[in-house]
User: Which sequence fits this backbone?
DNA sequence: CTACAAATATCGTATATCCGATATTAATAT
DNA sequence: ATATTAATATCGGATATACGATATTTGTAG
């Protein structure tokens, strides 16, 4: 249901955010996470997420040269991301100060 | 290990943040979540988190009149919150714009 | 065409959220 | 003292992260 406080969609949220900025493959995402966090998520983490997001119709494969499989956001995915962002901000509306201090 | 991208500590993160601002009981936290999200987390969600946080030494019961059991952050909890905030900002450093638009 | 390597896919396992339901505790009202 | 009620605690069950290991696909080099 994910009605109330379910924080379990955060990895999907992050992936959606990344893909929304630039078409990305699983490897692209893993590299970006490494840049941000210092460690790559394991393949067993990222590919199932991509699959689920794809099956939900939020992302879509893009034809591309090379062996990578790039994804782009669908219309549905854009709506989902917007809704998720709103929720995120409702929970963390008071993070602004910390963003100033830590980021 | 929660080394890389484990987003599964977010509820604890939120609870730690709330308690850091004001000593709070489980009910206080549920009410605050309702204010932010429109729905209360179920008791089965919040009390186990409080218990785990307490057993980890991050929060501590405070004597209080009334039937509520208020918690405060411990020194260890303060350190944990600071570290968690830093991690949070590393992942979401590019949320500033959205914070402007949505919050 | 074949070998290689990179990217992707899948599997088994573990833990952290989550919920609803039920039980317990404890302050208060009668 | 007992009943009421709010707060807390616990339980069973579900799903979303996570990992490491293994398998499969696919582009490229030879």
Assistant:
């Amino acid at each position: 249901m994910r009605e109330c406080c379910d924080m379990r969609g955060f990895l999907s949220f992050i992936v959606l955010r990344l893909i929304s900025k630039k078409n990305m493959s699983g490897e692209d995402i893993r590299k970006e996470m490494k840049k941000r966090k210092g460690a790559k998520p394991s393949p067993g983490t990222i590919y199932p997420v991509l699959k689920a997001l794809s099956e939900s119709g939020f992302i879509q494969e893009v034809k591309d040269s090379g062996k990578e499989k790039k994804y782009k956001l669908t219309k549905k995915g854009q709506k989902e991301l917007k809704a998720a962002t709103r929720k995120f901000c409702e929970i963390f509306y008071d993070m602004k100060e910390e963003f100033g201090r830590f980021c």
